[in-house]
Amino acid sequence: MHEYTIVMSMLDLCEKHAKGKEIDKLVLKIGKMSGIEPHFLQDSFDIFKENTICQNASIEINVIDITITCQDCKKEAKVDAFNFFCPHCKSGNTKVLTGEEMHIDYIKLKE
Ligand SMILES: [Zn+2]
Question: Which end of the chain has the smaller Cβ count within 10 Å, N or C?
Fold first, then answer.
């Protein structure tokens, strides 16, 4: 399971970041095209956080929309997954700007 691996590396990262303190909250950014299901990630986190420094931590997931930039008309647009044509000029000559990423936005430590 993909989400399991992500949670494990997240917990690892928290461990390094916290330096012995407890984690209060984790805020993540997940692109709609990242292939990660936010609720699976949430469930995995709740299971695997037991007995780690994240055991009392909550997780907040911000889903990032897919945006593209058009190489022809130079405009940016929000698109649905698997439709990468520019809505302005119908060009297929576009590049994905956001939506593929998955990263930790910030880690809040307990005081
Ligand atoms: Zn265009």
Answer: C
